[in-house]
Amino acid sequence: MSWPSNIPEATVRRLSKYLAALRRVERDGVETVSSVEIAKQGNANAAQVRKDLSYFGDFGYRGVGYKVGELRAELMRILGVDVERRAVVIGAGNLGAALIGYPGFERRGFRIVGLFDNNQSKIGHRVSGERVLGMAQLGAVVAKQDVEIAVVAVPAVAAQQVVDALVAAGVRSILNLAPIETTAPPPVIVRSVDMTAELEVLAFCLADADKPLEGERS
Amino acid sequence: MSWPSNIPEATVRRLSKYLAALRRVERDGVETVSSVEIAKQGNANAAQVRKDLSYFGDFGYRGVGYKVGELRAELMRILGVDVERRAVVIGAGNLGAALIGYPGFERRGFRIVGLFDNNQSKIGHRVSGERVLGMAQLGAVVAKQDVEIAVVAVPAVAAQQVVDALVAAGVRSILNLAPIETTAPPPVIVRSVDMTAELEVLAFCLADADKPLEGERS
DNA sequence: CAGTGTGAAGCGCTTCACAGCT
DNA sequence: AGCTGTGAAGCGCTTCACACTG
Q1: Helices (DSSP H) in A80-169: which residue ranges?
Q2: Nearest Cα to Cα of residue B87 among B136, B146, B164, B144
Q3: Is the CB of residue A18 inside 7 Å of nucleic acid strand C?
Q4: In A, which residues are within 8 Å of B204 by CB distance?
Q5: How close is the nearest chain A Cα to the Cα of B76, in Å?
Q6: ∠ at Cα B7 (B3, B10), nearest 5°?
Q7: What backbone phi and psi angles, to 5 degrees, belong to B8?
Q8: CA of B53: nucleotide with nearest C1'
Q9: pLDDT in tens, chain B (218 residues)
Q10: Which residues in window 80-109 of A are less than 7 A from strand D by Cβ?
């Protein structure tokens, strides 16, 4: 019910991986897994799987392993995806449309209950089947539908003001997909995924491999 | 030209942040910045900015700071975005369309030279203005256009086989957006961005806040 | 035995604090 | 005086190794 509050973020991210792996093997009818097998699926280390799980309780059976369905249920509870979480998407551009059209969110317990944009030419129209609402209606939707999560899919220049609006509307956690750092006052949580940054990390690895060979380039 | 090969990944990701910050202040006409100011933009620590940069050389002027244009150019060189990198996108669904339509990639030196899909009803048609090619043409395009990077935007079940095809085609680094772990043999690099996992981390934080209050829920 | 749970050791990133330039 | 560059200390995550259990 409550666990040491110092859970490493890396651990939580791995729990999500373990959960995905468990859903897969459960679909295949497997009933028991060892930490070694879980580790293989997420290319991690078996000792780490056990240590990660041990933060939250003793879920395994010594000499046997873990019961798939049981551990999956525990992980869902720990990750907080055992209850449906309502989410809104801000930004009805290409990325927003992609998010709305992606079935994986609903499948994992995230129900998208609103798509917002501040572009008058989009408001009222449908994008990926979802009616676009104006930002003026954000507060009402968040309150009425008990929205906890928002996904920000707007251009960098608008990102911070959208985050501010979300905080004002009462959203408690935000996933920012704009390529700029945004901040929100506690207890609101903001996590950012910056795909351009990821590409730059890839480019760094390429450059690292190039440089020793320096001198060509047609 | 060459640097200690043990650069922490976290450092590289921050370099990308610093570069973004430098581009912003350069646009505003600022010519000199201190490590403290760079740190503020990426909510990091000034000592860390200096340590990160010091892996690659001495770019600062003691008592003064860093010259914005100069440091931006150095970071572009270090990150390998001083030369144009050709990329392909696999998957012409909503997400692929969003990637093709996103101007931020070109702006940062990533040129998308091909959009691929294996769905016959899509091949030959245009998505976000780009003609969709069949997977059979992947090898030819990669070779002819010297493609180094691929972005995988296909469903989870297809992700690993797409990665395999990319490796066979000669792509050197892959950004996987499918919500499943994929692997490729060295020296090919795969990085994954899993938005459903990020949402689950957010949900964990929400659950963490909920649990102490347990007992309600209408 | 096979496989979990876990204290302790190992290791790498972060932060500090200050010497060294300009 | 101001700010960089950096050894050294601090700290937290990862890995090891083994006691323990069914």
Answers
A1: 94-101, 104-107, 138-145, 156-169
A2: B146
A3: no
A4: 12, 15, 78-80
A5: 9
A6: 145
A7: -60, 140
A8: D5
A9: 678 888 999 999 999 999 999 999 999 999 999 999 999 988 899 999 999 999 999 999 999 999 999 999 999 999 999 999 999 999 999 999 999 999 999 999 999 999 999 999 999 999 999 999 999 999 999 999 999 999 999 999 999 999 999 999 999 999 999 999 999 998 999 999 999 999 999 999 998 776 554 444 33
A10: none
In this prediction the pTM is 0.91
- Number of neighbouring beta carbons within 10 Å of residue B211: 14
Burial of A39 by CB count in 10 Å (0-12 exposed, 13-18 middle, 19+ buried)?
buried
B191 pairs with which residues across the strands? B175
Which among A9, A79, A211 has CB closest to B200? A79
Distance CA A75, CA A156 (A): 34
Q: Which of B201, B137, B89 is nearest to A7 (CA)?
A: B201
Distance CA(A17)–CA(B69), nearest Å, equals: 41
CA A76 to chain centre: 14
The residue count of chain A comes to 218
Half-sphere exposure of B155 (CA within 13 A, CB side): 8
Tokens of A144: 């009425």
Helix A68-79 vs helix B195-210: crossing angle, to nearest 10: 70
Q: Which residues contact B154 (CB under 8 A, 6 or more apart)?
A: B90, B91, B93, B162, B178
Distances in whole angstroms, Cα of residue A92 to Cα of each of A110, A127, A151:
18, 7, 11
For residue B51, the number of C-alpha atoms closer than 13 Å in the C-beta half-sphere is 10
